[in-house]
Structures are given as structure tokens and as C-alpha cells.
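Researcher: Let's run the pair from yesterday's discussion. Sequence first, then C-alpha cells, for each.
Model: Starting with the first of the pair.
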Amino acid sequence: GTWVETEKEISVSELPSKVSSSIKQQNPNCEIVSAYKIESATKQTKYEADIKIGKIKKEVVLLVDGTTAK
């Protein structure tokens, strides 16, 4: 088979600074619970983070420059 995509858990401190600051800017008072690096054969590398704001949990996916991935 052909390699398509790899998702690897990374520590929150390994998130690129533009990604973590963008998450904090878009979601004030959030806690970044976990982080993942998603590498793809055909798309840009993305970073996924599970965040918590109070009791609400959500997932955000950003590109290395801090913009939201489509």
C-alpha cells in the first residue's frame, strides 16, 4: 500500500509557537489537553489539539502557520 497519512501524539510543548498562540487567541482561557502532528502524503502538515474551556471539550486543527486547516 501507499503511505497516505500519519497521526502521531506529541507533547503540548512540541506544538509550534504559532499554533499554540493561535489556539489561545481563538479560545481564551482554554487548556490544551493533548496534541497531535498529522503528516500527509498530499496535504500540508497539520496539528490537532484537544482543548478544554471549563467543562466544554473541543478539537481544533491548524496548519504550522497557525491558520485553521480546512
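Model: Moving on to the second of the pair.
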Amino acid sequence: KITASDARLALRGAVQLEQLSGIQKFRGDVDFNKKLEAADARLILRAAVGLQKILPEYMDYRQSDLENIR
């Protein structure tokens, strides 16, 4: 389940107030532009309150993508 805490973590990572792991950054990039930004946190928050749908196939990330995360 997506929560407001997920959005908070994404925002803190986007503005570099918190160090996120590669997988956290990857999962937080919900607009698929290969960057974790405040816009991603906004979309995550909208999903948490039911205003936005995050595509389920995004959650099933590809292994090839994970191999490139450092």
C-alpha cells in the first residue's frame, strides 16, 4: 500500500535531505524519467490519497533495470 510516508521519503530523497538506496530511488521514480524529483513525491502523495493511480506494472520492475542501479 502506498502511503504519505512514501511521498515524504521520496521528497526528502529528491531534495537530498535523506540518503536513499538505489532501489529506493528507482522505485520512487514514478514518472519514469530516471530521476527522483519533487514531482515524483507529488504523484506518490496523490496515489496515497486516491487521486492518482500508479501503474501496477511499475511495481514489477525488471531485473535488467535493477542490474544498472548503483
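Researcher: Give me one sentence on the second I can quote.
Model: The mean pLDDT is 85.
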